[in-house]
Amino acid sequence: MRRLGSEAGHWDGVARERFSKSPPDILSEHKKKTHLHLLARWADLKGSEWILKTDLFEEASGPDQFLFDLGQKNNRIIGIDISREIVAQAKRRASQHNVDSSKYLCCDVRYLPLKSDSIDLIISNSTLDHFSSEEDISVALRELARILRVNGTLILTMDNKQNLTYPPYVFIRIWMKLGLAPYFIGRTLSLAELRRILEQEGLSVEESTAIFHYPHPDGLVRLLERLLHWLSRGKLDNAMREGLNLLDRLEKKSTRYLTGRYIAVKAVKKICSNLMSR
Prior knowledge:
By secondary structure, this protein is an alpha/beta fold. It has helices spanning 4-18, 26-42, 57-61, 67-71, 84-96, 134-147, 169-177, 191-200, 218-232, 237-248, 256-259, and strands at 51-53, 77-81, 104-106, 119-125, 148-159, 203-211, 262-269.
């Protein structure tokens, strides 16, 4: 496992280098819409007393953030991130949207400064797939289970290694060493592995699916989007949006785990954390 200081430093660097250069784009717009749709299906946003989001990357970077939208419905939201730079930028952007950011904290999802059984809803969108080992993912899941109240809900998404275009991790490492990845890409779990760990921690997976049905790598897809936008002077933007909407229909197919970029689960806590076996 990489040291915590180096992990935070990495994400601080990403924040300083990239977030000021994040103009709106169609893929980010689509990601935001997809996340909000998933939450509308699976979460009780208004009825949750306390909500936790496990990173603030989108809220700091801009186009695909959705936490500020949730803040219009419920202001009892805690946002966390390992990077001080990301937390600071998310706070600045929250103020621009008239959203309360007083409960945005800098901390590690593996070591949460929150009481056990204190959170009603946890939203973890592609946070845990940025660790260097599956053990780190397990530690983070244990922490999320600890702070979740009985009958509380965890909505979690992770990279889907069953996706037909998801490369072997050795190629991902090469991609990162060549400087072609915008940030550290970590390990992930299969749906079966994720379900097993969650059940060990007292959570029952009630729903699962796969979302974002376009191929890897993300950088090439975004390059193609920018190229089509430039060549058509924006005239193909709506066609690209419709194309992404059509690809979303693959979620209803039995082959969705072969085409979706992320696995998504809704898990509900069934037993009190102090009764869980370790």
